Amino acid sequence: MLAAYHIVSGNLVFLGSALLVTIELNVASIALALLLGTMMGLGRVYGGRWLDQGLGFIIDVVRSIPILVIMVWVFFGLPLLLGLQNFPAFVAGVLALGIHSGAYIAEIVRGGLGSVRRGQMQAALALGMSWPQAIGRVILPQAAIRMMPPLSTRIVRNIKDSVLASTIAVQELFWAANLLEGETAKPFPIYTTLMVFYFIAIVSIARMLDRAYVRVAARGAA
Amino acid sequence: MFYWPAFFDAFPALLPGLAVTLELTVLVMPCALVVALMLALARLYAPPLIGKCATAWVEFWRATPLLLQLYWLYYVLPSETSIQLPAFATVAFGLVCNVSAFLSENFRAGIASIRPGQRHAGLALGMSEAQAFFRIVVPQAWSRVLPETASMWVELFKETSLVSTLAVTDLTFQALALRTTNYRTLEVLTALALSYLVLAYPQAKFCDWLYRRQRIRE
Q: Which domain, by its residues, includes B85?
């Protein structure tokens, strides 16, 4: 305990900036994943048969490759393919996590949209709404509430997966912990403290998302 | 730009790693199934104190990053205790703990979803508790937990890639090692991604089929 206290208090600024990177990494990648997932999910449901099959294949491909492999491929391979110089690790981390979580979110969005009864769309169209209006104002708001529980699972998973960005030298919390472990050779206080930190953070975020869902759940009931 | 011979040459070099990846997956899954069942039973039927401990254990493994768990076992255990395990055994142990925690949630929900009347009817027919559980509850719960369990298998197959960071010579490790010797990064990493894809894609499709089949039956 004392050793952990000394290591944390002696490196407050360093750990603070690493925590900030972890937060930025997660906010950016979850935002990207939600954007990609919503677009792909809408494309699969309303884009016709060919788009559905094409997107379905892309989503299955992304879901079949481990996130670590996607991460190293995006960081080391993509710049070579595109001829980029000085590709920042942070951007690679955001892209890899965003694409990976996005593929899973696309399936959640598809399931959510599919769960809204057909009559809702027909009623909206009969009232003179255009397709985008009907989707944006009638279908998505109902589907969004039902998508919340699996979405929170995915967000939590994204946070847990984000420690893998340390392998491509994104200077986030786990990277910082490894560096401190290398300097001090005290794995016990460092990794245990980080473990407790992640446990508390993840359980709190999961509870928070759960409570948000309970508050609106009734409005999404079929 | 993309040098095809290096891409094709990468596959034979990755093969020994694939053996380790499969070995790890095949070894971890049965152990995790047994542990998960025990955890689920403890949470459903054991005295409250034991049930609470099982819940806390499961929550811990579910709410922390796997990579951190593996690092903790790999670095802290040998430095703080007299337990000295080879890297392979350490990561296998970590994966069993992690996977069994997720599986136990699935088992618990599956068993709890079978109405108590089923068990009561079994008992009323003169079955023992064990008989009612294994002959009435388990067969019904089985079809409900099967799709999720199969998904967990695919998940585990992919998660084993994390062991490469702890010098276990799996598929990912071999690719990252090959990359540093032949400098054909793009070709080697693409071959790596394709290897996982070819192996995991049919498994994922099989899981989708299991989910669809279950939806029709219920």
A: 4-217
Q: What whole-number distance in Å separates Cα of residue A149 and Cα of residue A99?
A: 20
The total number of structural domains that make up chain A: 1
Looking up residue A42, the CATH number of its domain turns out to be 1.10.3720.10
Q: Under 8 Å CB-to-CB from B152, ≥6 apart: which residues?
A: B99, B102, B103, B106
Min mean pLDDT across A174-188, A207-221, B108-122 is at A207-221
Q: Where are the alpha helices (DSSP H) in A83-133?
A: 89-114, 118-126, 131-133
A80 vs B contacts (CB less than 8 Å): 1, 185-186
Interface A:B, Cβ pairs < 8 A? 106
User: Quick one: pLDDT at residue B216?
Assistant: 65
Percent over 70 (pLDDT), chain A: 98
Q: Which two tokens stand for residue A13?
A: 């600024």
Parent domain of A7: 2-220
What is the predicted pLDDT for the residue at A42? Answer: 95
pTM for the predicted model, two decimal places: 0.92
Is there a contact between A71 and A164 (Cβ–Cβ < 8 Å)? yes
Residues of B in contact with A195 (CB under 8 A): 64, 68-69, 72
Give the CATH number, domain containing residue B177: 1.10.3720.10
Average per-residue pLDDT for chain A? 93
Cα(A34)–Cα(A142) distance, integer angstroms: 17
Q: How far apart are CA B55 and CA B46, in angstroms?
A: 11
The total number of structural domains in chain B stands at 1
Q: Name residues of chain B where pLDDT drops below 70.
A: 216-218
- Tell if the CB–CB gap between B201 and A60 is shorter than 8 Å: yes
Residue B84 has a pLDDT of 84
A209 near B CB under 8 A: no
Pick from B158, B176, B179: CB nearest A66 = B158
Residue A221, pLDDT score = 65
For A175, which residue in chain B has the nearest alpha carbon?
B68
Best of B76, B154, B166 to mutate (most A CBs within 10 Å, chain A): B76
How confident is the model at residue B2, as a pLDDT?
83
Q: Does A192 touch chain B (CB under 8 A)?
A: yes
Mean pLDDT across A132-155: 93
A191 touches B at CB < 8 Å: yes
Closest CA in chain B for residue A160 = B65
Q: Which two tokens stand for residue A91?
A: 């951007």
Phi and psi angles of residue A153, each rounded to the nearest 5 degrees, phi first: -60, -40
